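REVIEWER CHECKLIST
Item 1: Sequence provided? yes
Item 2: Single chain? yes
Item 3: Sequence as submitted:
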Amino acid sequence: MTNSTEAKPIVKLNHLLGLDGISREAITEILDSADTFLGVLERPIPKVPSLRGVTVANFFFENSTRTKISFELAEKRMSADTISFATSGSSVSKGETLLDTVRNIEAMKIDVVVIRHSASGAPRFLADRIESAVINAGDGQHEHPTQGLLDMMTLRRKVGRLEGLNVLILGDIAHSRVARSNIHGLLAMGANVKVCGPATLMPRDIETLGAEPIFDLDEGLEWCDAVNVLRLQLERQKSGEIPSLREYNRTFGLTRARLERLTKEIVVMHPGPMNRGVEIDSDVADGPYSVILNQVTHGVAVRMAVLYLISGRERFVE
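Item 4: Structure as written out by the authors:
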């Protein structure tokens, strides 16, 4: 295979800590780059030397399946050297601080740190104190920027545009970092966003984020072009926030019956993992309107694009 080098990126990202305040230009370049890397993933040998010589450390202080595997696969597809750090059995379990842990790893000449942490603001805390580039893989209830980007990539490829698109974010908004990244990113790209869910799971400041709250799911589905269904995060909730799972499904669950009552087709998304039969029924998740598996595929391409832009390296795509 012959390598050809493209021009360096227009937008240089020092870190990716969130989508709040990120420009339309930056999002567009990430999505355009992700489209290119999606082509790499479809090759017989899906690998390029774009990050050869770059070392990436994956710090996952919370459990993760899709995001962790997706980042690791993106790094390997781009020929990076990778280290995956688990808290179990590490010095963190012995009382070492987050900053001490990362500084020790950085002393080993790490170029990029990918971090997921239960504390909102942990990626920013690190970015302000270490030399390595930092990518937020989800922090507390704050943001999950690469998930927001892959959701936008999926919509753009499915519908053909983001400008003017009506997107409904449905479910447990209060505890969702995915909702916040989607709101920030979609609004930056000119989409219209509404959020729907129980009043007990709606943040008080939701309107300050630029999203209109509604509490009638059928009304929201008639309005939207796409619905992004969020997982009901039972592990983060306090008792009494919903009457029961059955009642939640009846009022806010995305069912086939609801979709069949619509006068149009809409795109169905879910960031995963899914509580089937609670926020979304299986025949909807696996149905013809669903692009959930596309989201998983696009996640690798988006993370390849972010790593490429973070590294500032030239890109090999041929």
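Item 5: Key structural point noted by reviewer: The first helix runs from residue 24 to 41.
Item 6: Recommendation: ____
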